Amino acid sequence: MEIIIKENGQVASEAAARIVVRLVKEKPNAVIGLATGSTPLMLYREMIRLHKEEGLDFSQVTTFNLDEYIGLPPEHEQSYRRFMNENLFKHINIKMENTHVPDGMAEDVPASCAAYEQAIIDAGGIDLQVLGIGSDGHVGFNEPTSSFASRTRIKTLTRETVADNARFFDDDESMVPHHCVTMGIGTIMDARMNIMLAFGERKADAIADTVEGPIASIMPASILQYHPAAKLFIDEAAASKLKLASYYRWVYDGKPKWQKDA
Ligand code: F6R
Fold first, then answer.
1. Does 202 sit in the ligand 1 pocket, CB within 6 Å?
2. Which residues pair with residue 2 across a beta bridge?
3. Which of 59, 146, 201, 204 could connect to 142 by a Cys-Cys bridge, CB 3.0–4.6 Å?
4. Mean pLDDT of 179-191
5. Which of the listed residues 133, 169, 194 should we mutate to test ligand 1's pocket, taking the one with most ligand atoms within 8 A of CB?
6. What is the pLDDT of residues 49-64, one digit of tens each?
């Protein structure tokens, strides 16, 4: 795992965006996995800027989102489909039919999860997966003790995640759905590259455990230690509990530019 510590979330997001740029230029029909929540917003703003100001072309790109709440229709203000449309898709030249978000309203949830997995396979697999991390270490909505072999399926959120996400529902925990559909950890680990973003003190413990703790399902993100191409883009606050922070800075600062953006 490569740890990239930047002075703030904006600079870290710009560094992460350079990975996206490189991929889309090298492979115009790239398949990109996307996350929602507050963390990737700066990355998405930078992708929009790169499209508008530098002509970054998303016309052949396909996307798959990590997760969706069960019971929220796509037009619901807090559905992840709506989030993606508002915060990214409608500002770039991606074809809407090439964007995929799990169906939170499916009548047959297991069948729709299997179809989602198949659609990823049919698209050629995910080249680059963007991840956030929960304060409890979840990736996607794979909460602590999720199987490392899991595929797209229904999950129940922890109370910690429900409380964390209440901020998107007028601070009313009773409005936060308790169930979701999420790509599994096995699905995420199949991505050819994973980039995780984490900002703020609230993520510091989870980041320290993810990077320097044992690989254990109680800290789902720790499985990234086992991924051959995983990069973490974090700010100083999220890095504040890393024991080897100065080593990670030294490694990154010593790399040639072409390797930093690869
Ligand atoms: C959302 C997702 C979640 C979030 C995590 C952090 O698609 O996959 O794992 O990344 O809950 O959320 P924020 O960024 O709001 O702190």
1. no
2. 231
3. 146
4. 98
5. 133
6. 999 999 999 999 999 9
